[in-house]
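Fig. S4 source data, part A: sequence.
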Amino acid sequence: MNVFRLNGLIICILLALGCDDRPIGVSGETVETDESQPKYCQVKQVFEASCISCHSEDGPASFLPMHTDDAIEAMMDGRLIIEGEADESVLFRRMTNDTNPMPPAGRLAEENWRIVGDWIDLGAPIEPCVE
């Protein structure tokens, strides 16, 4: 089996195993973010409200964790997040996809996916949050 077919098969399996349908922060609900925080901290607030229920150590999508700074930083290897290019980043394209959105229960509210897209376009800096 060639590498491209194998990668495609792996992606299909991972998508099939993906998240459940729990409507947390999805389908138009706006996650309240603290505008005084750096953009990365706002992104974490969106992830915590909308993604962590599946993308954590114990979640059904634990193969792609999003619950720690290290896990988010690991996504920036050019496969899921392309720093400075939200429209080219798989993460952002899945969040904004009309027919196959992430989370599966429905697209995030525009305000929420724009926070993530703006952060990626800024180069996806990981900054300390203000306490």
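Fig. S4 source data, part B ends here. Residues 2 and 8 are 10 Å apart (CA to CA).
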